[in-house]
Write a structure and sequence with these properties.
Elements: E1 2-11, H1 15-33, E2 36-42, H2 47-53, H3 61-65, E3 70-75, H4 83-97, E4 102-108, E5 126-132, E6 136-145, E7 153-159, H5 162-179, E8 183-187, H6 195-207, E9 215-219, H7 220-229, E10 236-239, H8 241-254, E11 262-266, E12 274-278, H9 295-307, H10 311-327, H11 341-352
Parallel strand pairs: 1-2, 1-3, 3-12, 5-10, 8-9, 8-10
Antiparallel strand pairs: 4-5, 4-11, 6-7, 11-12
Helix pairs in contact: 1-9, 1-11, 5-6, 7-8, 9-10, 10-11
Bound molecules: nicotinamide-adenine-dinucleotide.
Nicotinamide-adenine-dinucleotide (NAD) binds near residues 18, 86, 277, 285 and 332.
């Protein structure tokens, strides 16, 4: 029987609460399928670990993780630990070290999910964001000079390499071609006259290999407006790290909220483990109350199933989420219900039958 070895970093706040449900669902899927199984190894890393050990993860943490097929991550960050430490020393270090250069985020308005937009049909919100996940504005390159002095200067560089841009853009073209969808590049070549002009050029160059794919290009400001006014323009979208980060939160807002938004950090070559996560944070305001919505985590594990080649199960999980939303009986408070995190997880596993 095929074994998928999963490293679990539940993290902080509601992280462990939603991850528990993700694991419950994966166990049930494996049980029903019968041809594969999961083993889960939990790592106690995150802010609590930091407060005890002065670091977010074990010193040899990356080496330990490298032995797994995938990483399931809850959320990291908690009051008491600066956010730039919790983000950089765990999440970003994993993304970079394991060259998870694709961040794949579905923005799809399921039936029954709330949408704040007026005059937009449900089917109009159905896009997949391919966000560059390894360099760009989040490369961590810069300097802080004359700290605390009147002439203090900070420099934050955007790093755009030819290979880095080409590989993410090519991935997006492949996806658009395979799915028979349009591809939209979002950049800002008018103002960012080096990085984004370069990005636009590479988008055109790579596109020569995919004449069958219909393409569009938008400036990021126009794209934000169209995502709200006319979201059906977007099918597959490729964009840089920072723009993708911001636009996918906008995407989450128009497609049911943070409780439904998931993301996969992929190393497509499978040289290293890929990482799957709900995109919300640790929600300290509701941690420990049983109100956390686990459906974003369920969607993230559906992406994991797709990545392992079990896409029939991946689809089934998204269908289960949709059924729960349409029935409206077992939902957490963020979606207008009164069910607990565990009850929603139970409802998903029950529907899988
Ligand atoms: N990927 C990550 O691990 C990640 C992402 C974003 C923020 N963070 C960290 O999380 C901490 C809190 O950040 P924040 O408050 O800005 O964002 P957040 O996503 O944790 O919370 C924002 C709001 O959404 C609600 N919310 C989030 N997830 C929910 C869920 N599953 N069910 C129901 N409601 C949910 C919260 O209750 C809160 O009101 C910070 O330390 C931040 O750095 C981590």
């Amino acid at each position: 029987m095929k074994e998928h070895k999963i490293a679990v970093i539940a993290g902080d706040g509601i992280g462990p609460e939603v991850i528990r449900e993700g694991i419950k669902v994966l166990r049930r899927v494996a049980e029903l399928d019968g041809t594969f199984r999961f083993t889960f190894t939990e790592f106690p890393w995150g802010c609590e670990y930091y407060l005890k050990h002065g670091r977010m993860m074990a010193e040899d943490g990356l080496e330990q993780l490298s032995k797994f097929d995938a990483i399931l991550l809850g959320a990291v960050g908690y009051p008491g630990v600066p956010d730039h430490i919790s983000l950089w020393d765990l999440l970003l270090v994993i993304r970079k070290h394991f060259d998870q250069y694709i961040n794949l985020r579905p923005v799809k308005l399921l039936k029954g999910a709330p949408c704040p937009l007026k005059d937009v049909a449900r089917e109009d919100i159905n896009m997949t964001f391919v966000r560059e996940n390894s360099e760009g504005e989040y490369a961590g390159s810069g300097a802080w000079l004359y700290r605390g002095k009147p002439n203090e200067v900070v420099i934050q560089n955007g790093v755009f390499s030819r290979s880095g841009c080409e590989r993410v853009i090519r991935y997006a073209y492949e996806l658009a071609s395979r799915e028979g969808k349009t591809l939209t590049s979002i950049s800002k070549g008018n103002a960012l006259n080096y990085s984004m002009v370069f990005w636009d050029e590479i988008f055109e160059e790579v596109g020569k290999d995919y004449p069958q794919v219909e393409t569009h290009s938008y400036l990021v400001d126009a794209a934000s407006m169209f995502m709200v006014k006319d979201p059906k323009r977007f099918q597959i979208v490729v964009t840089s790290n920072l723009f993708g980060d911001i636009l996918t939160d906008l995407g989450a807002a128009i497609a049911g909220g943070m409780g439904l938004a998931a993301g996969a950090n992929l190393n497509p070559e499978r040289t290293y483990p890929s990482m799957f996560e709900p995109i919300h944070g640790s929600a300290p305001d509701i941690a420990g109350t049983g109100q956390a919505n686990p459906l974003a985590t369920v969607w993230a594990v559906s992406q994991m199933l797709d990545f392992f080649g079990h896409s029939e199960w991946g689809k089934k999980l998204v269908d289960c989420i949709e059924t729960l939303l349409v029935e409206g009986k077992t939902l957490t408070p963020d979606l207008g219900g009164s069910a607990t995190t565990a009850k929603v997880g139970d409802a998903v596993t029950a529907l899988l039958k």
